[in-house]
């Protein structure tokens, strides 16, 4: 079986897999459900039972209760205790939280090989770890192991044609390589109420992207840093561990607060390459005032709020922080706001539905590796 969350509900279709055990088949579905329910084990199991009734996922030889017992035995979940010996439901273990990140990584970014260097190539050429396929004259200071002996001997043969063969320094060439850079990234996730409005579940794909990006950076680019924050009426950082449990709140969208926190985090990073990814589906509609109260306006684009957003884009530009906005909306007036915001920051913007969100983030993360020269 294959489970897919869609904008207007759930799509559940059959697929054949001869190698999977009954537990493995159910576990694939469970990982989707537990992400969708923000870590609520009882709700995920209730959904699994409903799907079992409709699609006959189990038989008398292996039931949902057997599956739950295996989850406990394999340490994917644990029994919570109130302290008086009574049970208080099930919760995920760190083992399962990591598996959810790996699952999201495979779903969104595909299978990636772990990088030994933990760096990224740029379009600039110089001393690095990944060859460009082009040659340059050997210069004092170039690593001797970088000398291409085949091409160097060929150069000597051409130069000494008809004379005694002799290899000289002028014949030596080395293969150029890309500069390697490190990146500090802040991922902003909109958790305002509109992320679940209009019958569309937008928060689950956003969570998957965050989990996948976290797993990719920690395994493929261990020298990079990733911070995650959420923003509604306010903004606050969250740990990688908290991502699967994210829920949408009764919030407006305080984009300014999110950007302020993101830039404050990046100011403390030592890497010269810094960027912000912002996943949002709605217009900025909230500001926190100096006295602690909130100014909110959900009607149209409030010019006061919008101008403060543009000012944050200008500040980020001065700090050499590029903002990439992933707008999960198609409203023309929202598109115009994002275009102006992006132009102000000289950043990037993608206007997208839920499908392909992860792939676009991955593409930009891979390509945005230019070494900054000030």
Quick overview:
The protein is of the alpha/beta class. The protein has helices spanning 22-36, 41-55, 64-73, 94-108, 149-159, 203-220, 255-267, 303-318, 332-345, 357-367; strands at residues 2-6, 9-13, 77-81, 87-92, 120-126, 130-137, 173-181, 183-190, 225-231, 235-238, 273-280, 286-288, 294-296, 321-327, 348-351.
What brief labels describe this structure?
374 residues, alpha/beta, Rossmann fold, six-stranded mixed β-sheet, flat, disordered C terminus
For the biggest sheet, the summary is: 6 strands, mixed
Beta fraction of the residues? 15-25%
The H/E string reads EEHHHEEHEEHEEHEEHEEEHEHEH
Alpha carbon gap, first and last residue: 53 Å
CATH fold-level topology of the largest domain? Rossmann fold
Secondary-structure content class:
alpha/beta
CATH C-level name of the largest domain: Alpha Beta
CATH architecture level-2 label of the largest domain? 3-Layer(aba) Sandwich
The unreliable regions are: 121-130, 370-374
Helix count from the secondary structure assignment: 10
Per the principal axes of the C-alpha atoms, what is the gross shape? flat
Helical amount among residues, as a percent range? 25-40%
CATH superfamily of the largest domain: von Willebrand factor, type A domain
Integer-rounded radius of gyration: 26 Å
Number of DSSP strand runs: 15
Count up the domains: 3
Nearest-integer average pLDDT: 84
Enumerate the strands of the largest sheet in spatial order, edge to edge or round the barrel: 10-9-8-11-14-15
């Amino acid at each position: 079986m294959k489970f897919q969350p869609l904008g207007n509900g759930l799509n559940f279709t059959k697929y054949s897999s001869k190698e999977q055990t009954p537990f493995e088949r159910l576990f694939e579905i469970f990982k989707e459900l537990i992400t969708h329910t923000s870590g609520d084990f009882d709700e995920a199991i209730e959904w699994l039972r409903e799907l079992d009734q409709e699609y006959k996922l189990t038989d008398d030889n292996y039931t949902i209760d057997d599956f739950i017992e295996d989850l406990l035995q394999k340490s994917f979940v644990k029994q919570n205790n109130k302290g008086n010996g009574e049970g208080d439901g099930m919760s995920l273990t760190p083992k399962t939280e990591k598996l959810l990140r790996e699952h999201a990584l495979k779903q969104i970014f595909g299978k990636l090989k772990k990088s030994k260097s933990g760096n990224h190539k740029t379009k600039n050429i110089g001393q690095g770890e990944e060859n460009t396929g082009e040659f340059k004259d050997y210069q004092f200071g170039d690593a001797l192991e970088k000398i291409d002996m085949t091409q160097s001997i060929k150069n000597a043969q051409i130069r000494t044609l008809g004379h005694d063969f002799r290899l000289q320094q002028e014949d030596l060439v080395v293969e150029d390589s890309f500069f390697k850079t490190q990146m500090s990234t802040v991922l902003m996730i909109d958790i305002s109420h509109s992320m679940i409005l209009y019958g569309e579940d937008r928060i689950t794909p956003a969570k998957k992207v965050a989990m996948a990006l976290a797993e990719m950076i920690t395994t493929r680019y261990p020298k990079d840093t990733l911070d995650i924050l959420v923003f509604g009426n306010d903004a606050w950082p969250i740990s990688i561990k908290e991502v699967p449990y994210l829920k949408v709140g009764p919030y407006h969208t305080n984009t300014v607060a999110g950007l302020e926190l993101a830039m404050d985090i990046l100011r403390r990073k030592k890497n010269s390459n810094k960027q912000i990814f912002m996943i949002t589906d709605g217009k900025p509609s909230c500001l926190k005032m100096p006295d602690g109260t909130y100014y909110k306006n959900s009607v149209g684009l409030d010019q006061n709020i919008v101008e403060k957003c543009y000012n944050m884009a200008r500040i980020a530009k001065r700090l050499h922080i590029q903002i990439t906005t992933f707008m999960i909306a198609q409203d023309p007036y929202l598109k115009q706001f994002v275009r102006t915001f992006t132009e102000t920051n000289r950043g990037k913007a993608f206007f997208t539905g839920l499908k392909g969100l992860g792939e676009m983030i991955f593409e930009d993360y891979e390509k945005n590796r230019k070494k900054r020269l000030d």
